[in-house]
Amino acid sequence: MIEFKSVDKFYGHNHILKSINLSIKHNEKVVIIGPSGSGKSTVLRCINRLEKIESGDILFNGQSILKQKQSQLSTEIGMVFQKFHLFPHLTVVQNVMEAPTWVKKMNKVQARELAASLLEKVGMGDKLNSYPSQLSGGQQQRVAIARSLAMQPKLMLFDEPTSALDPELVGEVLQVIKQLAVEGMSMALVTHEMGFAREVADRVIFMDKGQIIETGSPEEVLSNPKEERTRLFLSRILH
C-alpha cells in the first residue's frame, strides 16, 4: 500500500529522515514510536505530501506519490493532527460535510447524511449543531476523525492524536481509533500511548535521529527489544 524507498528529508542542514525504507500493507496497523525530533511525524507528513522529500520515492498502491495529484491523494489518505483544525464558524456537522461537498462534489443532502452517520460512529451524534468552541478537546478530536473519514480514505494517518488532550479525555479518542482498527482500517499512528500501541498495532516501529532503529510486533519491540537504544527509550517512558 505504502512503500518508502531510501527516502531522505532535510530541513536546511538538518537531516530529518535518513534513507528510510518502510512499507505499510493494506489493512495493517503500524504504530511509530520514538523520542521528540526522531522523524516520526515527518514520516506521516511525507506520505500525503505535506512535506517534500529530497531523495528517494514513496509509492502509494504501486504509484509514486510524486506523480499523483495532491487533490487525489487527499481523498485517499486521511490525516488527524495533534491540533483539531476545525472551522470555528461552522457547526460540527458542517465541518464534516465540508470536504465531501467541495472536493467530491457530493450534494448537500447526501453529505449531511454521511456526516451524521460518521458523527454517530464516533459518539458525537448528539452534537451535530454545536460549534467547536462548545466542545471539549476530546470531542473536537472525535469530530476531526469523523471529518477525515468523510473522504472515505483507504489509509488513515494519526499524528499524536491525543497529545493535546487532558489525560481524562485521551481514552474516548483512543476508543474511536481502536474501533476503526477492529473494522480493518489501514493506519499509521504516531503515539506515546504504549498500552494502546500494544493493543492495536500489528507492527511497532522505533525511530531515533531520523532512522528506523527497530521494527517488529508489539511483543518484540515493546516487551523484548533487541536494540539498546530502544530499551533505553522504553525504560524512560514505561517507568
UniProtKB/TrEMBL annotation:
Keywords: ATP-binding, Nucleotide-binding, Transport. It comes from the Bacteria. GO terms for molecular function: ABC-type amino acid transporter activity; ATP binding; ATP hydrolysis activity. PROSITE patterns: ABC_TRANSPORTER_1, ABC_TRANSPORTER_2. InterPro entries: AAA+_ATPase, ABC_ATPase_HisP-typ, ABC_transporter-like_ATP-bd, ABC_transporter-like_CS, MetN_ABC_transporter-like, P-loop_NTPase. Residues 2-234 form the ABC transporter domain. Belongs to the ABC transporter superfamily. This is Amino acid ABC transporter ATP-binding protein (PAAT family). It comes from Paenibacillus prosopidis.
